[in-house]
Prior knowledge:
ten-stranded parallel sheet, twelve-stranded mixed sheet, UDP N-Acetylglucosamine Acyltransferase, domain 1, 336 residues, Udp-n-acetylmuramoylalanyl-d-glutamate--2,6- Diaminopimelate Ligase, Chain: A, domain 1, alpha/beta, 2 domains, single chain
Amino acid sequence: MEFTAKQIAEVLNGKVEGDETIKVSKFSKIENDEKGGLVFVAADSKYEKYLYTTEAAIAIVKDTIQITSAVKPTLIRVKNPHFAFVKILQFYASMKNEKSGISKRAFIAKNAKIGRDVYIGDGAFVGKNVVIEDDVRIYPQAFVGDNVQIGEGTILYSGAKIYEECVIGSECILHSCCVIGADGFGFMPNEKGVFEKIPQLGNVIIGDNVEIGANTCIDRATIGSTIIGKGVKIDNLVQIAHNCTIGDNTVIAAGCGIAGSVTIGKNCMFAGQVGVKDHVTIGNQVIAGSQCGIHKNIPDKQTVLGSPAMDGKKMMKIFAAMNFLPDILERMNRES
């Protein structure tokens, strides 16, 4: 896809300085000196010097930047180059992912309700009583079980699986091979010590504007719903167990494991490989560092590190002290 400087400026509400008809079809890093690409330069950044040597066709720059000598690219001046570049990436992605039509090689139950401008690819499965709203894109080999609801503008990439009864909001992105609504890990030993399965009769409810990474699993509730709030972003290879509730705008990085019946508040940030014990309640705006082991409730606005997790400042002191332990032990051995 090609875009002119004028078209890009219209998307960004920017001002063109140079040839507004010049076209680009790729994004480039300004320091790599690629010809013909689109680059951006943040004001007062270490990359500003490359503006005078780059072979890029178009450069997005801050509106207040002072040009001290001739530059080759056409400039598009904007208030915030970082935000503008993200916005143009989003625009490009939306154009790139334009799909239309329903494949004859997809299976769609007769009583499924399909909205307008829906794309369903080869080999996709749409079960009974499914409701798919407008502008949904379901890529090849995706599975949508019976009685599922999918909101407007949501994308299911190849191999995504949504089990029966689950509800997916609008403008969500479900990446390849994520599984929504598989059974929670519920078993109970009988009098002979044999584990019997506890039926998982609930579902998963996912709010609007949620993104779920590849190979992530979100289990259905035993009774009731596992709930993922609006704006939640979940990375690849994350496990969220039955009856969990994840608050709005929380982000969870790769490798995290959330045990059953955990409640996580709004606007939390979990780094990679955080583990959370079952039935724990975590407040709003909590930050958990990499490989935290959270085994008890955490109040609002706390930063925790380590395993078991504790106050971040205290844990940093412990980490610092650990560097001195070998010397202390050596001295104690000498003096004993």
